[in-house]
Amino acid sequence: MTRRSRGREVALQVLYQIEQNSGFKAADVRRFIDRRLLGDEKLVEFTLELIAGIKGHQAEIDATIREVAENWRLDRMAAIDRNILRLGAYEILHRPEVPAKVAINEALELAKRYSTAQSSRFVNGILDKVFQVKGPDPAEAETIEPDDESPDADADASAGDEPV
Phi first, then psi: what are they for 76, rounded to 5°? Predict the structure, then answer.
């Protein structure tokens, strides 16, 4: 498991705990994260950013999930699946440095680990639709063809090829 995968896993655990226990205080969250991530400050910061971002954009994320989840109400989804979807949707919608394929794959791994056998297919279907609603990022396109043959067109086409 990569470091960021571990951070996502801990963020999911915190989101689930917060949803199940509204009395879970910020100090408890920080203590839990520190214990799970052994005080790795960069990873703790990444995890806290995920949690804050999801909570800060939760209304929008939930609305997007509702929009694409045909025949599924958010409150009828399993709590763990709902939070996996929020995590994946947040990264797709608000973390442009994370390729959508990575966000979806990370969510699938969490679903396989923490939910039912059918959940990974469910999560994949919903997050794929979230990605379609968002629209593909030109930097993630399979092939990028410049409009003309000018040297600037080639520079623009490779601008999104920086490593994550």
Answer: -95, -10
d(CA 96, CA 103): 10
Distance in angstroms (rounded) separating the CA atoms of residues 72 and 53: 24
Closest C-alpha to 12, from 68, 118, 91, 128: 91
Length of the chain counted residue by residue:
164
Question: What integer is the mean pLDDT of 8-35?
Answer: 94
Is 136 in a helix, a strand, or coil? Answer: coil
**Inter-residue contact 68 to 31 (CB < 8 Å):** no
Half-sphere exposure in the Cβ direction for 19 (13 Å, CA)? 19
- Asked if the model's pLDDT at residue 163 lies above 70, the reply is no
Q: Which of 10, 5, 12 is nearest to 86 (CA)?
A: 12
